[in-house]
Amino acid sequence: MDISTAEEIASALKPIKDATCIMSEDSTPTLSVIAPLHAQLLHDTEAAGVAAETPVIREIKLAIREDLVKRYSCARNKHMLYTSSFLDPRFKALPFLTTKDQLEVHANVLAEAAALQSHVNSEAGEDKSETPQPDPEEATPPKIRPSALFTLLGKTFTEVSVVHKSTSTRAKEELKTYLEAPPLPLSENPLSWWRTHETAFPLLARQAKRYLCIPGTSVAAERVFSTAGDIVTAQRSSLTPEHVDQLLFLQKNLNVAPAKEQ
Question: Which residues pair with 30 in a beta bridge?
């Protein structure tokens, strides 16, 4: 009887174990993973879904759900979690949200993308105004003889007006293309995807850098302290700070593949 009860407990706690392993074993557990995991755990512990379970499993899952419902409940946390999940190409569909909530996330992303670009443009304008301008009398550009192509077609093609799109319009176009792109497989790294597609989505890529750089757990940082504790033991207490930094660096980069020779 005790063995069967232990097996039931292990079965009920397996989703929690899997979620913990995902956040602890991944080398780059970004903030974007939290909302999908939280939604899935809530779905797996719904009262209707556990009605057919044994009393032990049902009691455990309902207790887990009661605690999970309290997590990430404020609007600020939801905004950050949902935005980071949307900017992760693996979870951008946000299937765990209602259509209304999905549209709200899209609107927030558009507004933030336009605000970030405006801020960048204002900073660029300030930097440009502070840069000393050369004296026009001193900088005389050399005369360039026009080519035959310019002589024949220059007037036609230099007078073609270029339509400048507003930041809001460009953000909407990027969002539409981003949603239409195929989702990234769960086994792939979203940071690598954004590095490859940064030029195609410059506004969204800037947001992705802000959100996906946030770690979803402190495990990675705690591992550094744990490694330092293994290095600086009582028998090695005379190590200098410089040597400790070097040993930590070597230990953390031990498995880095060497660069290929050109």
Answer: 215
Q: Please give the DSSP secondary-structure letter assigned to residue 32.
A: G
Least confident of 5-19, 61-75, 121-135, 157-171: 121-135
pLDDT in tens, 7-35: 888 888 888 888 888 887 766 678 899 99
Indicate the SS3 state at residue 145: coil
pTM: 0.71
What is the number of other CB atoms lying within 10 angstroms of the CB of residue 193? 17
How far apart are alpha carbons 222 and 217 in whole angstroms?
Answer: 10
Task: Give the separation between CA 171 and CA 108, rounded to whole angstroms.
Answer: 11
Which are the contacts of 207, defined by CB distance < 8 A and separation ≥ 6? 83, 87, 109, 112, 113, 116
**For 165, left (φ over 0), alpha (ψ -120 to 50), or beta?**
beta
Burial annotation 84-107 (CB, 10 A radius, 16+ → b, else e):
bbbbbbbbbebebbeeeebeebbe
Q: Tokens 């946000």 sit at which residue? A: 94
- What are the backbone dihedrals phi and psi of residue 59, each rounded to the nearest 5 degrees, phi first? -65, -40
Nearest of 38, 15, 13 to residue 216 by alpha carbon:
38
Single-letter amino acid code for the residue at 100: K
With a CB cutoff of 8 Å and minimum separation 6, the contacts of 184 are: 88, 89, 90, 190, 193
Average pLDDT over residues 178-198: 92
